[in-house]
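Section 5: illustrative case.
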């Protein structure tokens, strides 16, 4: 990814999260409590929270919520929020992961994939990757990813 693009992306996310909290500051203590209540001890716990995620299109434009913002929104966002949630949940059980940008003619999609390439989190789906040596092909040809995306960029 272009370094300048990443800087702009991070500034946009920072500003959008700040704007969210300006209008929702009264939800902060509830969001903190919800975040504290998320207990992750195993992959099964991660699957549970990933399954709770609700996809919702970002308006007025795309941005990535902080985890506390996602908690205030009760795990509701678009794919980048789901990917951030997956990365955070995995980190709670010491599993390193990357965010992957899938590029396609209809737009981009962001997923989370563990460093060993054994599973991915895409929106509210926790998906096992059967062949870690062929993970790119599995990601691009999985269910509703198939025929939509052609390029992968590690974020």
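Designed sequence:
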């Amino acid at each position: 990814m272009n370094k300048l693009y990443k800087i702009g992306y991070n500034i946009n996310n920072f500003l959008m999260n700040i704007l969210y909290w300006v209008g929702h500051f009264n939800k902060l203590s509830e969001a903190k409590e919800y975040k504290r209540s998320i207990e992750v001890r195993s992959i099964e716990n991660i699957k549970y929270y990933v399954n709770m995620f609700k996809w919702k299109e970002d308006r007025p434009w795309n941005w990535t919520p902080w985890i506390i913002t996602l908690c205030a929104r009760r795990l509701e966002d678009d794919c980048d929020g789901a990917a951030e949630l997956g990365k955070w949940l995995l980190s709670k059980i010491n599993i390193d992961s990357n965010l992957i940008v899938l590029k396609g003619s209809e737009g981009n999609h962001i997923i989370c994939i563990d460093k060993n390439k054994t599973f991915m989190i895409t929106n509210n789906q926790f998906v096992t990757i059967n062949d870690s040596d062929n993970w790119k092909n599995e990601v691009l040809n999985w269910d509703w990813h198939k025929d939509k995306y052609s390029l992968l960029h590690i974020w």
